[in-house]
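#data-curation
PF: Archiving a pair of folding outputs for the training set. Convention for this channel: one message per protein, sequence first, structure tokens after, nothing in between. First:
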Amino acid sequence: MNYDEEISSHHAKIIPFLNQLNAQIISVDDFFNLSIQHFDGERKKGVVKFFSDGKGFGFIEREKEEDLHVSKKNITEIIKEGDKVEFLIGKGKKGPEARQVRKI
């Protein structure tokens, strides 16, 4: 099993557990800033409105809600404008952001 498959396998086991417990996870952002990520427990769906791999961020359009910021570090595969995605919502430095984003 290669590294990506192993990580994917671990995510498949961990995500349902986190969703069930409405998890709060401690993570280190940018190697120095300690923050608490709070996931609301339910994967949301949206469409990639804009994403720049070069800039390392983009936005996900959600029906009847504000667009959501997504950082390159929070995607599990390459995404582009128009892709349908699902994600968790976590607390970022400037407000809510998409986490664990993957295409559907």
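PF: Second:
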Amino acid sequence: MLGPHDATSTAFKPIQVSLNNMARTITGLERTDHVLVCDLQDCARLPYLYKLVVRADAMEAWKVFHNSDSGSGEQNPIGTTMFGPVGTGISQDRSLRSNLAGQVIIPLRGVNAIVCHAATIWNQWPELQAAKSSGAAKLAARTFARTKK
């Protein structure tokens, strides 16, 4: 799962630097002003890299679940990993309470990082699960990304 501190890793650093430079251009601030990145991004009304990743993963989870293959993403590899192979009779190793709540199993983080993050978001945000259209899912994903710091 990509966390707020993972966004500073070497792979994501150039993207975050570009976002910071855009925010400085919009706000008219210089690097020498030493403004915190979170304050800079808020003043420019630009999203953090972490929020972009959260929104993308939330939409991926919704798209996988509402795939056109009769639901539950059974023909999509990400959907099969998240929601289990539907109709195969393989029992999901989870309690009845989480099963009834519509929660999905979160796989090991090192193996399927995208699936793990999408499953975590899916479990934490019932509004995303309840979204019936792509527009409603986008709105739920934006709201979720705003609430998570």
